[in-house]
Amino acid sequence: MWGGRFAAGPASIMREINASIPFDKRLWKQDIAGSKAHVAMLAKQGIVDGEDAQAITEGLNRIAMEYEADGVPVDLDLEDIHMVTESRLADLIGPAAGRLHTARSRNDQVATDFRLWVRDAMDEVDAGLAALQDALLKRAEEHADAVMPGFTHLQSAQPVTLGHHLMAYHEMIRRDRSRFADARVRMNECPLGAAALAGTGFPIDRHATAAALGFAKPTDNSLDSVSDRDFALDYLMAATQVALHLSRLAEEFIIWASQPFGFVKLPDAYSTGSSIMPQKRNPDAAELVRGHAGRIMGCMNALCVTMKGLPLAYSKDMQDDKPPVFEAHDLLGLSIAAMTGMIETVTFRTDRMRALAESGFATATDLADWLVREADVPFREAHHITGRAVAAAEETGTPLADLPIDTLKAIDPRIDERIYAVLTVDASVASRKSHGGTAPDQVRERIAQARREKEA
Ligand code: ARG
């Protein structure tokens, strides 16, 4: 395709290092859509005559059918998806195929194809995340009242509800979706027509091709159009953020499924056994979600480092933009689907959660707050008094709520029987009615609001 000025062909290792067809064949649909939009515009502008344009369009349609049926042939000599398709077009329609590349370069072609692909990828991820949110909402609603220990430093801190805990992830995913939505708006400009780097002397209509491909407008600087991959990085950064969130949820499932916790029974469908230890039920899916997050971050890092320091405009380094995006997208799709499946089917052992919440002195803050509220004790002093009550409970091995009133009065005479009303875990969660707090009514309200937001 470009051999005119060369006397010798490439070394076999050159062929191999140069070829992107083994991976960029994934862009074939976008490549054909871009070419069809381009040739239709060329015909409309009188740059290619109608007959040739029709032959090219029909040839491209036929190639799409061939790729659909048999896959894209991987011919390293033809380098990439653009050349493979153009060469097949020449087989099919002869020399007229050569007119397709008028007023275009592979540089703007690949930038266009890849944007189209990433745009679809973002829509796919968004649909997956919406399903994950639905699963979280459903399980949160089911468990809006279920008390569990809330942790800081993985130490029992204050009681919360399981519904509240699950809804925390719903919030994270809501922001993750908005990151993709922002990125989608930003990337939805069409680079086609930027040509190699400087634009073209042909009277092309960039607005027409942009509209035909569903872009909001053409890009405004030809150099930028062919040399930036920030749209792919936006995708990878948003994907990283999702993976990071999913890995925390995965980690919690792994901890919760351990025997000492026993907060969940992971579904059979998302667990594996051991070939030697018959009692085992391993949380492999959750572990792989946690593991894949590392790889997704690696993909993001890979593209950052590829792009860092590249002079304008196109350099071949940029061909390496695609493998990390494809890899991250595949890993993310699996992770979202696996996590959604786990959320939908996991058994929450709410009796066990409640028992642990009751045993961990998690209502100590409620005792201190009561002293502040009912006995006008300064909070620091209340904190100290409560610390002594916890020590007494620990010594006798009883929950705070079971300490005899005499023991409590001996610690501080301002305590009276009314204290027992705040020492239960149910009273504790019910009292946390501040906006965004864990009180079951608050949680239910947030669930209802989230449903309304989704419908709007
Ligand atoms: N396969 C190339 C890529 O993915 C297409 C662009 C090639 N452009 C060039 N001037 N060699 O980046």
How is this structure best described in words?
With 456 residues, the protein is mainly alpha-helical. The chain has 3 domains: 15-102, Fumarase C, Chain B, domain 1, CATH 1.10.275.10; 107-139 and 159-349, Fumarase C, Chain A, domain 2 (Up-down Bundle), CATH 1.20.200.10; 356-455, Orthogonal Bundle (Ribonucleotide Reductase Protein R1, domain 1). The chain has helices at 12-18, 21-24, 28-44, 50-70, 81-93, 106-142, 162-187, 206-212, 222-227, 230-257, 284-307, 322-345, 350-359, 364-375, 379-396, 405-411, 420-423, 425-431, 440-455, and strands spanning 147-152, 155-161, 189-190, 217-218, 264-265, 347-348. The strands form 3 sheets. Strands 1-2 form a two-stranded antiparallel sheet. The two termini are 52 Å apart. The protein binds arginine. Residues 20, 24, 80, 106-107, 110, 314, 316, 318-319 line the site of arginine (ARG).
